From TrEMBL:
<feature type="domain" description="Diphosphomevalonate decarboxylase-like N-terminal">
    <location>
        <begin position="9"/>
        <end position="162"/>
    </location>
</feature>
<keyword id="KW-0456">Lyase</keyword>
<dbReference type="InterPro" id="IPR036554">
    <property type="entry name" value="GHMP_kinase_C_sf"/>
</dbReference>
<dbReference type="Pfam" id="PF22700">
    <property type="entry name" value="MVD-like_N"/>
</dbReference>
<dbReference type="GO" id="GO:0005524">
    <property type="term" value="F:ATP binding"/>
</dbReference>
<dbReference type="InterPro" id="IPR029765">
    <property type="entry name" value="Mev_diP_decarb"/>
</dbReference>
<dbReference type="GO" id="GO:0005829">
    <property type="term" value="C:cytosol"/>
</dbReference>
<protein>
    <recommendedName>
        <fullName>diphosphomevalonate decarboxylase</fullName>
        <ecNumber>4.1.1.33</ecNumber>
    </recommendedName>
</protein>
<keyword id="KW-0443">Lipid metabolism</keyword>
<dbReference type="InterPro" id="IPR014721">
    <property type="entry name" value="Ribsml_uS5_D2-typ_fold_subgr"/>
</dbReference>
<dbReference type="InterPro" id="IPR053859">
    <property type="entry name" value="MVD-like_N"/>
</dbReference>
<dbReference type="Pfam" id="PF18376">
    <property type="entry name" value="MDD_C"/>
</dbReference>
<keyword id="KW-0547">Nucleotide-binding</keyword>
<keyword id="KW-0444">Lipid biosynthesis</keyword>
<dbReference type="GO" id="GO:0004163">
    <property type="term" value="F:diphosphomevalonate decarboxylase activity"/>
</dbReference>
<feature type="domain" description="Mvd1 C-terminal">
    <location>
        <begin position="174"/>
        <end position="301"/>
    </location>
</feature>
<dbReference type="InterPro" id="IPR005935">
    <property type="entry name" value="Mev_decarb"/>
</dbReference>
Amino acid sequence: MTARATAVAHSNIALIKYWGKRDTAIALPATSSLSLTLDAYLTRTTVEWGAESDSVVLDGSRLNGEAESRVTRFLDLVRRLGDRSDHATVVSHNSVPTAAGLASSASGFAALAAAATAAARIDLTPRDLSILARKGSGSAARSVFGGLAVWHAGTDDASSFAEPIVDPGLDLAMVVAVVDAGTKTISSRAAMQLTAETSPYYPAWVESSRTDFTDMLDAVARADFTRVGELTESNAMRMHASMLGATPPVSYWQPDSVRVLQLVRDLRVSGTECYATMDAGPNVKILCRRTHLDTVRDAVAALDIAGVTTSLPGPGVAVSQAE
Ligand code: 2P0
C-alpha cells in the first residue's frame, strides 16, 4: 500500500478580514474572521510519503527558497503528528493565479493539510484539520469548509479553529474583477506584520473588526443581504486604511481597482445591489445575489480590465483519492 493521497480545496474570500496576528509562532490571529468559500478557484495536491527528501512541484515548477521551506516546515508538523521521519513528494496544481491576492495560500495549505494527513493515515476531525491548515496559512483554516465559515481567533492553539456556519438563504454569489493576476509586491504575511507594528490605525482596525464580526454573525443569521454587504465593504476598506497608515505605507490598489469600486457604487445606485471587497492585491471581489451575477459580470467586462470570473459558494476540502 502506498502512502499517497490527493486532496482538492477551494479558495475563500473573507467578508470580515483577518489582518494581523497576536501570536506569530503558532499563527493566532488578532481577530476572528468570516469567509465565503468559492467554487471558482481550487488547488489539487497529491502527497506521497516515503521519499528521501521533501520536494514540492507547483504547476510544473520545482519550488525552492522560502516558498519550499514554508511547505517543508508544514510537513514537519505532519511528521510530528504522525510520528514519522520520512519525507514527502508534493505535486500541486492551482487554478488560482499564485500570490495574486486571490487566496491561493488558503486553498493551497488546506489541500496540502488534507492530502499530507490522509496519505499518512492520520485521521483528523475537520476542526483539527483547520487548526493544522492554519499553521500553514491563516486563511487556509477557513478553506477546510464550504460556503460560509468563521475562524475563531481563539486564545491558544486548540481554540483558534474554523467551522462552517449555516447560510439561512442569503443566496450569495461573487464576481471577481481581475485587475492584475501578477504576483503581489509584498506578501500578505509581511504586510500585515508591518501594519500591526507601525500603523497608528491598527488598534482601531482590531477594535472595529471585532464589532464587525459580531454584527456580521447577526446579519447572516437574519439573512440580511444588505447588512452583510455593507459590513463586507466597510470592513475591507478599513483594513486597507490601516495598511495606508503603515511605515512605509502598503497599498495594493491600482487605477483599475478604483474604477471597479466606482462601478460597484454606480450599480447600487441603478438598483443592482452589490458590494466590494479587496484583499492583499489589486483585484476586486464583488458580492451580489445569484440573480445579479450576469448583470455584474457584464458591467465589469465592459470596463475592459484584465479579466472577470463568476463564482458560487464552493465546497469544503475533499480527499479525492487515498491509495
Ligand atoms: C483574509 N488575507 O482574511 C485576509 C484579508 C488577505 C487580506 O488571509 O500569514 O495568506 O499565511 O496567515 O492567510 C491572507 O493572509 O496569511 C489573508 P498568513 P494569509 O483572507
